């Protein structure tokens, strides 16, 4: 909510607000890491968008996109994938994409890179039993990890509209 309601202050780099945001993030991340030191469960939730982001960085080359830009793009792709999987409501996905766009992040698909992105994902170190795993969300604070239908991943990477 803070990123929507306080957009102007965030963009203006209001020191008090940024301190509050950083403090909240550190507390939340610290609590998650403390509960899951070896990343065997909940800690993986911190990687929302990262499977897409790491593939993008691999395909486009490190430094073409900043890691933050790649993760933002990956979160947009994860929202779309969650929608296609029937796990994420369109309203929630639209809200998240809207926040990313509000801050100037790219959320558009890159269909010309679809095959290369999928190839990079197949080499991702966090695969299990040969399956690409994705961090997805039902809604705020309702995050889960798992494999997805290949046809849904292909549609997201190719930018297919429903």
Question: Topology, please?
Answer:
Layout: H1 2-5, H2 7-11, H3 15-35, H4 50-60, H5 67-84, H6 90-102, H7 114-122, E1 134-139, E2 142-146, H8 150-158
Antiparallel strand pairs: 1-2
Helix pairs in contact: 4-5, 4-7, 5-6, 5-8, 7-8
Tags for this model:
162 residues; two-stranded antiparallel ribbon; mainly alpha
**What fraction of the residues are assigned to beta strands by DSSP?**
5-15%
The computed structural class is mainly alpha
Global shape? globular
The counted number of beta strands is: 2
Q: What fraction, in percent, of the residue positions are helical?
A: 55-70%
Total number of helices: 8
Largest pleated sheet: 2 strands, antiparallel
Task: Give a written overview of the molecule.
- The protein is mainly alpha-helical and 162 residues long.
- 56% of the residues lie in helices and 7% in strands.
- It is built from eight helices and two strands.
- A two-stranded antiparallel ribbon has the order 1-2.
- The radius of gyration is 16 Å and the shape is globular.
TL;DR?
The protein is mostly helical and 162 residues long. 56% of the residues lie in helices and 7% in strands. A two-stranded antiparallel sheet has the order 1-2.
